[in-house]
Amino acid sequence: MSLQTPPDAPRFWLRHLFAIAFCLCLAAALLPIWIGPYLPAVDWPQHLFLINILGALDDPAFAFRDLFVEEPGWTYLAFYYSVHWLARLVPLEVAFKIWLSLLLTGIPLSLWFLSRSLKRSRWLCLLAFPLLFTYSFYWGLFSFMATLPWTFLAIGFFVRVLDGEWGTKRFWLCVAGSATSLALVELTHAAAMVFLALALPAMLLTTPSDRPRRIAAVLSVVPGVALLLMWLVTGQTRPPEIGAGPWQAAGPLLDPANYVFDPIARRLSELPARLAGGFWGYADRPALFGWLAVIVLVIGLSIYRRQRPDMAIIARLRPLILFLIAFGCYLFLPMDVKGYMYQIYPRYCQIAALLLIVALPFPLGPSYKIYAVAATVVGVYSGINLAVQFYQFNDEAREFDRVVEMIPPNSRIMHLVVNPKSKVSTHAVYLHYAALAAARTGGVPSFSLARHSPFPVHYRADNPIPTPRWEWRPQAFDWKREASFYDVYLVRGMSAEKLFGRHLRRVEAIGEAGDWKLYRRK
Question: How far apart are CA 141 and CA 136, in angstroms?
Answer without folding.
Answer: 5
